[in-house]
Automatic annotation (TrEMBL):
Motif 'KMSKS' region per UniProt: ranges: 247-251
Family of the protein in this entry: Belongs to the class-I aminoacyl-tRNA synthetase family. TyrS type 2 subfamily.
This enzyme's EC code(s): 6.1.1.1
Keywords: Aminoacyl-tRNA synthetase, ATP-binding, Cytoplasm, Ligase, Nucleotide-binding, Protein biosynthesis, RNA-binding
Database matches in SUPFAM superfamilies: Alpha-L RNA-binding motif, Nucleotidylyl transferase
Domain of life: Bacteria
Primary gene name: tyrS
Name of the protein in question: Tyrosine--tRNA ligase
Sequence ranges assigned to domain RNA-binding S4 in this UniProt record: 355-416
Subcellular location, record wording: Cytoplasm
Catalytic activity reported: tRNA(Tyr) + L-tyrosine + ATP = L-tyrosyl-tRNA(Tyr) + AMP + diphosphate + H(+)
Length: 417
């Protein structure tokens, strides 16, 4: 088990609260859901400023899937803000906890992963995380470092530090118990092990989504049990997807993947509503809050909201793909908006001419089904060589043509008999 850390809350109270510490608190609070306890964090900031000792900021990543979207990066952006303030950010790869499986916010257990799956996903996570954080200045850790050596005896001793009654206060456990849905004993180990990570790392602050609050508070409890100064916790909201309703999710198909092509990423960001745009600015942009407020005021006074959306899209695409890619994505978007044909489009070869328009669109990958293709025709959303297709009974003859669906989907189709 970990050696007790000698710091105490009282030691943080002796340092004066400066304007710089208050400014750091404001940066911490930007876009966050909850900071607990805020007064403790302010005292930690004051101590750090006075002593020159960086605070330790922890965020756990269970590599349960290989690809990340912008919703995942909300916490990464907050970590980067804290890193730029001079503190030590600790991306923690949960290679041990991933093999337990966390049911957070679910009504069933998340399946545990194999070691091979975890290692493959962790590599991808690390590469994508490096697009937001300065990895050279980060302290990347794996919780197997201390969890594997803990052993059965250590695990039992750790479990003795928390009661079943308190564990059942966690909402998903409570709801599953009421519904007579099975809860495996090993599921109780997940929040305990996540909390023990904070003990091992001597964390001053732990970040997580709103669905992780119980686990974050567990870290505070276990640190106190081990004689450490308890960490503060910072929860970040779940980012809404492109629809502005549900949280961003690949299963909802309302996501923007951080490794998506620059043109796709740019176009998706331009498609969000004028209202949702400001939430994206708050949670994803590195622009100063004052600059965002000024931009919002300009739009309220009549400036085209598209100008602000382009600024946001350029920033995000530049972050993940570079400035040149952002320039190209903006040109591509404007070209498509004017009805032009992009320089690079998919080449598709099909047989069976003459081919019904619905079948052609489906086979060319421009519509998920023939019936959906016909619905697009009825809406005037299909063009062949720039001309709108209005006849759902159209049969396309052999030859080569550019087929367009909506503003973003193109294919150069070569059709043979």
């Amino acid at each position: 088990m970990s050696t007790p850390h000698s710091s105490s809350v009282a030691s943080a109270q002796q340092f004066p609260i400066s304007d710089r510490a208050r400014e750091a608190l404001a940066i911490t609070l930007r876009g966050c859901e909850e900071l607990l306890p805020a007064d403790e964090w302010l005292r930690k900031l004051a101590r750090s400023e006075a002593t020159g000792q960086p605070l330790r900021i922890k965020f756990g990543l269970d590599p349960t899937a290989p690809d990340l979207h912008l919703g995942h990066t909300v916490v990464f952006h907050k970590m980067r803000q804290l890193q730029d303030m001079g503190h030590t950010v600790i991306p923690l790869i949960g290679d041990f906890t991933s093999m337990i499986g966390d049911p957070s916010g679910r009504n069933s257990t998340r399946p545990p992963l194999t070691r091979e799956q975890i290692e493959a996903n962790a590599k991808t996570y690390f590469d994508q995380l490096a697009l937001v954080l300065d990895i050279e200045r980060a302290e990347v850790r794996h919780n197997s470092e201390w969890s594997d050596p803990l052993g059965a005896r250590g695990m039992i001793q750790l479990a003795a530090k928390y009661t079943v009654a308190r564990m059942m206060e966690r909402e998903d456990f409570h709801q599953r118990f009421k519904a007579n849905t099975p809860i495996s004993v090993h599921e109780f180990l997940y929040p305990l092990m996540q909390g023990y990570d904070s003990v091992a790392l001597k964390a001053d602050l732990e970040l997580g989504g709103t669905d992780q609050k119980f686990n974050l508070l567990m870290g505070r409890h276990l640190q106190q049990e081990h004689g450490q100064e308890p960490q503060c916790i910072l929860t970040m909201p779940l980012l809404e997807g492109l629809d502005g309703v549900d949280k961003m999710s690949k299963s909802k198909n309302n996501y923007i993947g951080i490794t998506e092509a620059p043109n796709t990423m740019f176009a998706k960001l331009l498609s969000i509503s004028d209202t949702l745009m400001w939430r994206y600015f708050t949670l994803l942009s590195f622009l100063p809050a004052e600059r965002i407020a000024a931009l919002k005021a300009e739009v309220a006074d009549g400036r085209n909201p598209k100008d602000a959306k382009v600024l946001l899209a350029r920033e995000i695409v530049t972050r993940f793909h570079g400035a040149a890619a952002a320039d190209g994505a903006e040109r591509d978007f404007e070209l498509r908006a004017r009805g032009g044909i992009p320089d690079q489009i998919d080449e598709v070869s099909l047989g069976g001419a003459p081919l019904a328009i619905g079948t052609l669109l489906k086979l060319a990958g421009l519509a998920p089904s023939a019936s959906e293709a016909l619905r697009l025709v009825d809406q005037g959303g299909v063009r062949i060589d720039g001309a709108v297709v209005s006849d759902r009974g159209l049969k396309v003859e052999a030859g080569t043509c550019v087929v367009q669906v909506g503003k973003r989907k193109f294919a150069r189709v070569t059709l043979s008999a």
